[in-house]
Design brief:
Layout (H helix, E strand, L loop, with lengths): L6 E5 L3 H12 L3 E6 L5 H9 L4 E3 L4 H4 L4 E4 L8 H8 L7 H6 L5 E6 L4 H14 L4 E5 L5 H6 L5 E5 L2 H5 L8 E4 L14 H9 L10 E5 L3 H9 L5 E6 L8 E4 L4 E4 L3 E4 L8 H16 L4 H10 L8 E6 L2 E5 L6 H9 L5 E5 L12 H7 E7 L4 H7 L5 E5 L2 H11 L5 E4 L12 H13 L2
Parallel strand pairs: 1-2, 1-4, 2-3, 5-7, 5-8, 6-7, 8-9, 9-10, 10-11, 15-19, 16-17, 16-19, 17-18
Antiparallel strand pairs: 11-12, 12-13, 14-15
GO molecular function, one term: UDP-N-acetylmuramoylalanine-D-glutamate ligase activity
Subcellular location: Cytoplasm
Pathway: Cell wall biogenesis; peptidoglycan biosynthesis
Length: 447
């Protein structure tokens, strides 16, 4: 039994919370799980199986405030009254990643950024697995990190981390920290201040030493600003699409090649993932592979045969010559910019949902060049209509994926593309972006 902190409360009974609760119970803590919403039946069954008491539909504050430590869902903002009460009681809540990291000696590769986290996490995992390392993915992908740690699954963990998780991490140290980009996202949680949001992202380098590595995007303006304000102890491995002198990896426009740590060069035409943003993701995976000692032949092969993740520029089907692409994971402007930038055919764009403070102006040039019609899929589409009414003649509104796909099929012609890339969160009409993407795919397959 851990005598210093005997009572642990876990706030939120999703995958990460239940995983943390099970790990805490296995380590000898008294654990209580509290969720303001309704807990899914499979998670209730797991908690009961491990004899972990729980509550749903609200919080018993007396029990929560009696905790020696609180592990909270990243979806609960630190500004909430609940967290403020806990802090006033002398307890600083942590996230499940912080808790689970205490119980593993595995090497930790932590990945954050506004866009590309999931694709890059899968790609780094693919490179390491092909290099015959014992590696698992966790964090925002797959099963919770706590479950992996409890089962001692791997020698390396590739962790996808959000700014929300990083806010609640204090002693965690990444052996390799990766920062892909900092672009406007979730600014509603950061008082519309991108510098505050950027500081949360920079927590990825907390506690690193000269023995660790920091891989980052040397072309990103917000990262440059943050680097001026932070001391980086780790060895730096920047990557760039414009500067061929960086130490990590770079892209040569004239030769259409990438070079990784000056030891591995390959044509971008051999990369499995297309588009400039995926050149960056491939550079990151290649640099990581070299840092952990994987042979360059294995890295080259891995970057060539990788299959993209679901809901990220995912080809769904071609129906009478019309291509349907599911990019439901694009929940902000920057992600949708990359999607539109990669379109080579006239595009019917399906967009909309819960706006997170979007400024659509930066999409205007791409929309003018590539988009022939817009289908709004959301409850409130006024901001989208206002932004693009002067540049796109046809804009229709719908609140159903079936209707959106139907409109797309009507508005597109042979060799056109219907692209779901919402630039918004999904919670007005869907459970999450996966639900939105799956319903879109089901509708396409029903044509």
């Amino acid at each position: 039994m851990n005598k210093e902190k005997e009572n642990i409360v876990v706030l939120g009974a999703g995958e990460s919370g239940v995983g943390a609760a099970i790990l805490a119970k296995a380590k000898g803590f008294d654990v209580f799980v509290s969720d303001a919403g309704i807990i899914k039946p499979n998670f209730k069954d797991e908690l009961n199986e491990h004899a972990i008491p729980w509550e749903e539909g609200g919080h018993t504050m007396s029990r929560i405030l009696n905790a020696d430590e609180v592990i909270k869902s990243p979806g609960i903002p630190n500004s909430s009254e609940l967290i403020q009460q806990i802090r006033a009681n002398g307890v600083i809540p942590i996230c499940d990643i912080e808790f689970a990291a205490r119980y593993t000696n595995a090497k930790l590769i932590a990945i954050t950024g506004s866009n590309g986290k999931t694709t890059t996490t899968h790609l780094v995992h693919h490179v390491l697995k092909a290099g015959e390392l014992a590696v698992e993915m966790a964090g925002n992908v797959g099963v919770s990190f706590a479950r992996c740690v409890l089962e001692n699954r791997a020698d390396f963990y590739v962790l996808e981390l959000s700014s929300f998780q990083l806010e609640d991490m204090y002693d965690f140290k990444a052996d390799i920290a990766i920062l892909l980009n900092i672009t406007p996202d979730h600014l509603d949680r950061y008082n519309d201040n991108i510098l505050t949001y950027g500081r949360a992202k920079m927590r990825i380098i907390n506690n690193q030493s000269i023995a660790d590595a920091f891989i980052y995007n040397a072309d990103d303006e917000q990262i440059k600003i943050q680097l001026e304000k932070h001391v980086v102890h780790a060895k730096r491995f920047p990557f760039s699409l414009t500067n061929t002198q960086v130490e990590g990896g770079f892209y040569k426009e004239e030769e259409k090649t990438i070079s990784i740590k000056n030891k591995l060069t390959m044509s971008i035409h051999d990369l499995a993932l297309k588009g400039k943003h995926n050149v960056q993701n491939s550079l990151v995976a290649g640099i990581t592979g070299k840092l952990v000692g994987i042979r360059k032949e294995s890295i080259r092969e891995s970057l060539s045969d990788f299959t993209n993740v679901e809901h990220r520029l995912e080809f769904v089907a071609k129906v009478n010559g019309i291509e349907f692409i599911n990019d439901s994971k694009a929940t902000n402007i920057n992600a949708t910019w990359f999607a539109l930038e990669s379109m080579n055919n006239p595009t019917v764009w399906v967009v909309g949902g819960v706006d997170k403070g979007n400024d659509y102006e930066e999409l205007l040039p791409l929309v003018q060049e590539k988009v022939k019609a817009i289908i709004c899929l959301g409850k409130d589409n006024s901001k989208i209509i206002e932004a693009f009414a002067d540049v796109v003649d046809t804009i229709v509104e719908t609140q159903s994926p079936v209707d959106a796909v139907g409109y797309g099929y009507q508005l597109a012609k042979k060799d056109d593309t219907v692209l779901l890339s919402p630039a918004c969160a999904s919670f007005d009409l869907f459970e999450n972006y996966e639900d939105r993407g799956q319903q879109f795919k089901n509708a396409v397959r029903s044509l």
